[in-house]
Recover the amino acids of this structure.
């Protein structure tokens, strides 16, 4: 990433008459944009027939855009294959878990494990990379578009069998790891191993977790094949992919990101599929933090919501000011590039109602003007922001193996990994406590508080990492359903929480999955935690402390009086084991107490989102008003507005959906 701040738009010249391109490019330039993403769905225009390439139109589009000062990111177009590719080989189609094969007419219809499809992809990517390797306007590449969705096809099955053979080396080792003797599932040939189609009912958890990992690896390796071609041909260009934030749960994004120069993602704060907990602002912040954590570096938003979304239905329209606010929120959480999706609203195709910056008829309205205000602001202040970094003392551990394992066996109808994770994140967000998101094996030494919601699958490496953190003086929060599984998705052969038991200083003697019932938690007023009772309705671990103090006990049922939350002092640090799971109330209560106990944390409980980025020794403070009403906040001292250059002190006032950035 250069020191320049990227602002731009996703543009589809192939969808509009060529006579219009110069008008569009001029509008982009006038809006202060400096980058444009092109071509990620344009395969059939680039290769109308097998091996016959046509780059002339794209050359001309790039020439027009570059003449208006725009630099270009090219998408490899492998998410939407031409009909002629599929007509040649129907085995390419991805199959969903219900056994139905995709059909032509949508996108991402391919099985990522299909060698023939990968050869088609290789051909178009090689041709594009060689065409644009030395083009002065091209700066980088996006591989494919939003990789995702597991494939259960016959091709995937064969690839899964080969993946297992590579992983285990012998059928004996695999059968042993899965406990395959259960229900006579012992395999005597690799070719006997099924994929976990729903049609067969729930599968062996060991097989199912390996299949989730294999499916993730399939996209990682498909991306790597394309990336190696692009890197070899275009050593001066960056290579990235547009991921889907925290909400997407089919790929281990730590793995997918490891091959990229930097992460980009697609940020749609107001969408109907954002079903996990939290309001729009907290969900978007969680997405940004997740993406920043993948490589522990700044990221771009490759698709930033530009209007109301919609395929068959139309989502409520962003209010005046929200597009700019959301773009600044991304920056406030570590974005060094904002690319709006999309420029002009499509007249044809599935996304006719996915509103871009321009209207269907190409006219300019308030969305364009708002993006223009943002673009021109960034033209002035972008260089002072680009490359500055967020610093947090709190981190949440995001573990895809645990998330996959809980997809396979949720344990309770109301237990969702994403929702529980979001409860903890939202409680921090509401208090303006910046939080990072890392994997359970990342270095945690920079943090004072580590929260590990539902760390269900625990490896010896993760357990050792957590112990090292706590011994060094950190506070670790663990929840129920942690340490339940080993890396093979077998239940551990010891009392829960398994490998974390000594660290937590507690043993789970029994547990109660609450279905249609609830229980209460009473905090012990003799401990530091003196809070009102909390009701939980999902899960209760009954705890037997072995060295830990009891912070809360159950109030009802046959286990009334049993320990529910404990704290264990270990070395210079401590471990809080939260044995009960319910809604947001419990994380709220515990964080109120824990953050007050953390000297590093700042408590600001108004509705304004406040974050920081540091440019060397210079602090940039972002103030984001996510409500329609004006808000104000008291400032500590004298500051300067990056947006206006004015000195600010006393009370900072922000209009509805207003934004301010201050330097000390
Ligand atoms: C995703 C895709 C885009 C577009 C938008 C809106 O983020 O990457 O191509 O489809 O969703 O649906």
């Amino acid at each position: 990433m250069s020191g320049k701040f990227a602002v731009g738009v996703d543009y589809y010249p192939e969808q509009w008459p060529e006579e219009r391109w110069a008008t569009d490019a001029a509008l982009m330039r006038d809006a202060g944009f400096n980058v444009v993403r092109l071509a990620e769905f344009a395969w059939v225009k680039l290769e109308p027939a097998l091996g016959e390439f046509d780059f002339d139109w794209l050359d001309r589009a790039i020439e027009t855009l570059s003449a208006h000062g725009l630099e270009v990111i090219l998408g490899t177009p492998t998410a939407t294959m031409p009909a002629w590719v599929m007509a040649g080989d129907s085995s390419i189609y991805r199959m969903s878990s219900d056994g139905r094969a995709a059909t032509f007419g949508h996108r991402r219809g391919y099985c990522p494990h299909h060698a023939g499809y990968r050869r088609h992809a290789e051909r178009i990517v090689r041709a594009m990379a060689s065409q644009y390797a030395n083009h002065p306007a091209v700066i980088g590449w996006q591989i494919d578009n939003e990789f995702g969705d597991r494939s259960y096809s016959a091709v995937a099955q064969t690839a899964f069998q080969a993946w297992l053979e590579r992983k285990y080396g012998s059928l004996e080792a695999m059968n042993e790891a899965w406990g395959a003797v259960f229900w006579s599932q012992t395999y005597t040939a690799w070719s006997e191993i099924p994929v976990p189609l729903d049609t067969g009912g729930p599968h062996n958890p060991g097989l199912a977790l390996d299949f989730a990992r294999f499916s993730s690896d399939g996209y990682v390796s498909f991306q790597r094949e394309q990336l190696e071609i692009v890197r070899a041909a275009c050593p001066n260009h960056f290579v990235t992919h547009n991921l889907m934030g925290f909400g997407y749960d089919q790929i281990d994004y730590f793995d997918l990101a490891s091959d990229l120069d930097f992460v980009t993602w697609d940020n749609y704060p107001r969408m109907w599929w954002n079903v996990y907990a939290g309001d729009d602002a907290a969900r978007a912040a969680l997405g940004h933090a997740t993406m920043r954590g993948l490589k522990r570096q700044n990221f771009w938003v490759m698709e930033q919501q530009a209007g109301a979304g919609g395929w068959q239905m139309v989502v409520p329209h962003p209010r005046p000011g929200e597009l700019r606010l959301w773009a600044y929120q991304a920056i406030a959480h570590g974005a060094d590039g904002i690319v709006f999706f999309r420029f002009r609203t499509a007249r044809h195709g599935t996304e006719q109602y996915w509103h871009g910056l321009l209207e269907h008829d190409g006219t300019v309205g308030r969305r364009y003007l708002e993006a223009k205000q943002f673009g021109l602001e960034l033209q002035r202040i972008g260089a002072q922001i680009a490359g500055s970094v967020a610093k947090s003392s709190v981190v949440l551990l995001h573990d895809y193996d645990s998330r996959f394992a809980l997809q396979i066996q949720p344990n309770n109808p109301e237990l969702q990994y994403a929702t529980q994770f979001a409860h903890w994140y939202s409680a921090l967000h509401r208090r303006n406590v910046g939080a990072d998101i890392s994997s359970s094996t990342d270095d945690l030494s920079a943090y004072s508080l580590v929260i590990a919601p539902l760390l269900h699958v625990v490896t010896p490496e993760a357990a050792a990492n957590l112990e090292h953190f706590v011994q060094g003086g950190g506070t670790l929060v663990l929840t129920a359903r942690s340490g339940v599984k080993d890396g093979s998705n077998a239940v551990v052969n010891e009392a829960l929480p398994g490998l974390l038991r000594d660290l937590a200083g507690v043993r789970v003697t029994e547990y109660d999955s609450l279905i249609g019932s609830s229980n209460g938690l009473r905090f012990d007023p003799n401990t530091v935690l003196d809070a009102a009772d909390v009701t939980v309705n999902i899960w209760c671990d009954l705890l037997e402390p072995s060295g830990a103090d009891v912070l809360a006990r159950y109030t009802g049922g046959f286990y009334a009086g049993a320990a529910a939350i404990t704290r264990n002092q270990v070395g210079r640090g401590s471990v809080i084991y939260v044995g009960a799971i319910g809604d947001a109330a419990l994380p709220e209560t515990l964080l109120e107490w824990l953050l007050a106990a953390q000297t590093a944390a700042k408590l600001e409980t108004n509705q304004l989102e406040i974050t920081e980025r540091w440019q060397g020794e210079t602090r940039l403070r972002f103030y984001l008003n996510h409500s329609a009403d004006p808000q104000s906040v008291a400032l500590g001292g004298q500051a300067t507005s990056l947006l206006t250059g004015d000195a600010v002190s006393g009370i900072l006032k922000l209009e509805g959906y207003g934004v301010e950035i201050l330097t000390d």
Notes: The chain has 17 helices and 28 strands.
